[in-house]
Write a structure and sequence with these properties.
159 residues; mainly alpha; 2 domains; 7 helices
């Protein structure tokens, strides 16, 4: 397990690591004393053993762990949420053209998600403009706007 690997790489015993975790705990508001050593030993020695999220956070911090490593110490429901999946609307799955202020197609994307990622804006931002709902701020914070395209790449005005 990664905790044991960290400990051994730094020449620490379970007790040394437990003391490091307790020092971190004392620095936090409401931090309390706990018998961390036996928990660390169980985490290292018993496959699938988990602990409470607060203690997992302290152990991960003490071991300079990644979020993924920390998540191995807790039940699934306490793991960090992964990046949200793309919105699955019918608008999001349509090809999108990027249009400059002169009305020229700058580039095309297979979806609103792809266009949003490329231009650093949300899928909602892209899809609203692609449907012609940009209003007075059609170009908003960008020098381009978006429109849906048909199968042949032709721009669809409105939707």
């Amino acid at each position: 397990m990664w905790i044991e690997d960290y400990r051994k790489a730094h020449g620490m015993t379970v007790g040394d690591l437990a003391e490091k975790v307790l020092k971190l705990s004392r620095k936090r508001p409401g931090g309390r004393e706990a018998h961390v050593g036996p928990i660390i030993a169980r985490l290292e020695g018993i496959e699938g053993f988990v602990t409470v999220p607060g203690l997992a956070d302290l152990i991960a911090e003490a071991c300079e762990a990644t979020p993924e490593q920390r998540d191995t110490l807790v039940l699934k429901k306490y793991r960090h949420k992964k990046e949200k999946k793309a919105v699955r609307s019918s608008y999001n799955r349509k090809p999108v053209a990027v249009i400059d202020k002169a009305g020229n197609v700058v580039e095309t994307f297979p979806s609103g998600t792809a266009a949003g990622l490329a231009y650093g804006v949300s899928v909602d931002y892209v899809c609203k403009r692609a449907r012609g709902m940009g209003g007075d701020s059609e170009f908003g914070m960008l020098d381009v706007t978006f429109r849906y395209t048909d199968e042949g790449g032709g721009v669809i005005v409105g939707d």
